[in-house]
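User: Study the chain.
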Amino acid sequence: MSNLDDFEELDDLSDEELEALEEKPYDDGLDEFSREFVNELIEKIMVFMKVLVGHDLRSYQKPLARRIIESVLVNEGEEITALASRQSGKSETVADTVAALMVILPRLAKMYPDLLGRFKDGFRVGLFAPVESQAETLFSRVISRLTSEQALSVLGDPEIDDEAKKVSGVTKQVKLTSSNSSVMMMTANPRAKIESKTFDLIVIDECQEADDFTVAKSIGPMLASTNGTMVKTGTPTTHKNNFYRAIQLNKRRATGRGGKQNHFQWDWRDVSKVSEEYGKFIRKEMLRIGEDSDEFQMSYNCKWLLERGMFVSSTVMDELGDTSQKVVDAWHRTPVVVGIDPARKMDSTVVTVVWVDWDRPDEFGYFDHRVLNWMEIQGDDWEDQYFQIQDFLENYNVLYVGVDANGVGDAVAQRLKLLLPRAEIISLSSSQSEQSKRWKHLKTLIERRLIGWPAHAKTRQLRRWKRFYQQMTDLEIKFQGPNFLAHAPEEAHAHDDFADSLAIACSLTMDLTMPTIEVSSSPFYR
């Protein structure tokens, strides 16, 4: 039985026994740092939060609340992002979670000093937003959670005996008198002087409008001494910013081995499943402003409209994904082409197998392409990778294999010629002009909708599919003189191995594109 279950039984103890319990750490037989204990504690805090605020969170809100609680308990110092449809309850989720942690953590710190001892003198929260009125919205919701009739009855319990009081000063701040937990409201305006504060948890609401320099220089360092958690919430916009980059970083990290989910997202469909009123309103909005309008896509469908400067948008990626196709582990009916991007430094070796509809080119001579499978190999031990590639490609009728000749690519191509005698191995130059041809050809296939990839529900759970999708949507366009190039953004954990491998594979059909035929009158057919 855990501590939180014991609250009801404490009424039967004398004052001396209660004082002894407060002085002695509680022991329920579980290691405070074990995964089982932390998971149990998270669930108990979720139950306490429901009692404190008087209502339960919706199903799509609970994972975000649990992740915030987990990061705070374990002191992971994570940056958690939440992208949500307008008026869907993202601020409500954060407000409920903040209020519950302010009340319960200082008391749990006495019971579990090894895990939570840093909160014995209170839990400090900073709430930020681009302008004061937006920060006031979230701040007032947290205060309402601490001053409602339901909260007053909980805080008035003899075992808690706490009260929320306003702190006088320039900044708006409320402190719990007994536990010393505090919540402070500040703005992320670049003209505001907000340095010198220290927090255990920072929340930046409407983060898509926050000043990037202020977030990085002034707000982020406020968590340095505590290794605190930062939560960023907001909606999409038309340009990249610190919120977008934080989301992309969390998505990339989640695709790694053992990666945790630090990004949470729900659109109008998720909300409509549990709120009939929300669904009715959205259907009226579809008629009023149009489902395909920029306003609807950003406000309710969680779509970033960043086509300018991006190689391919997530909308196009979703359109080209075949939801009925799974990964094809073997194919011998028709010849396929293969692209290999050898590993360099921190990158991976990626092999992409592409099916080509050789018999039915379109009116301009372009063939239809379909990705059948991917293989990703970590590390740079090429003696092992050669044979892994050989075993993988034995399951396909390979016609051409293209290898990026940059770095070790030329040596890889020479070795594969010995291991794959039936296929033609082509070493492709990495000069800007040659890369430009490859990227232009891939872009043409995408624009003509002559390329696709597996997107079955089970396939989308695969780590290699997630990395492929993430790297394709990360790609940025760069013009180098007359050359059209695509590359990964210069950000942490950003790679372009899957995209390079696909471009290499598709470039093998570039020279086979049907030529234009000129027809002139002939005297023999008059």
